[in-house]
Write a structure and sequence with these properties.
By secondary structure, this protein is mainly alpha-helical. It has one domain. Helices cover 55% and strands 11% of the residues. It has a 3-stranded parallel sheet with strand order 1-2-3. Helix 4 runs antiparallel to helix 5 and helix 5 packs across helix 6. The longest helix has 13 residues. The N and C termini lie far apart (44 Å).
Length: 132
């Protein structure tokens, strides 16, 4: 298995740099028959969501759809993909950052009663509680 960094995943999602997009395409094509040849972790997904929003001006539905599409690729394994899809669905409907939804979901899964935060927008997420 080979890990994919944020910039590689962004090329896959945006297609904005011809030579790099071609390199990513060749890499993925070489492993088409081998399921789960590549790995994308939560940090990469969070960085992608932030970059797509702030650097590319993508909107929530576009970001959620793009990141969800990665889970359908046989060659790619996503860290805890079911949790990611749940967080993306919440993100698509909510107002907080994707990272906030992922943190809340990961902490619930870990058995946390709740997650404390100072972030007013994140506090609208189920399982987030104000500190102070």
């Amino acid at each position: 298995m080979i890990g994919l960094d944020t910039n590689v995943v962004l090329r896959l999602l945006t297609g904005d740099d011809g030579p790099q997009v071609e390199a990513v395409g060749k890499l993925l094509a070489a492993s088409q028959d081998a399921p789960r040849s590549f790995y994308i972790n939560h940090v990469v997904l969070v960085e992608c969501a932030w970059t797509l929003r702030t650097g590319y001006g993508y909107r929530r539905p576009e970001i959620a759809a793009g990141l969800k599409s990665l889970t359908a690729l046989k060659a790619i394994a996503i860290e805890d993909a079911e949790l990611v899809v749940t967080a993306l669905e919440d993100y698509e409907q909510g107002r907080a950052d994707f990272s906030d939804y992922l943190v809340a979901a990961k902490n619930r899964r870990a058995g946390c009663a709740y997650t404390v935060s100072f972030d007013r927008v994140a506090l609208r997420i189920a399982g987030m509680e104000p500190l102070g």
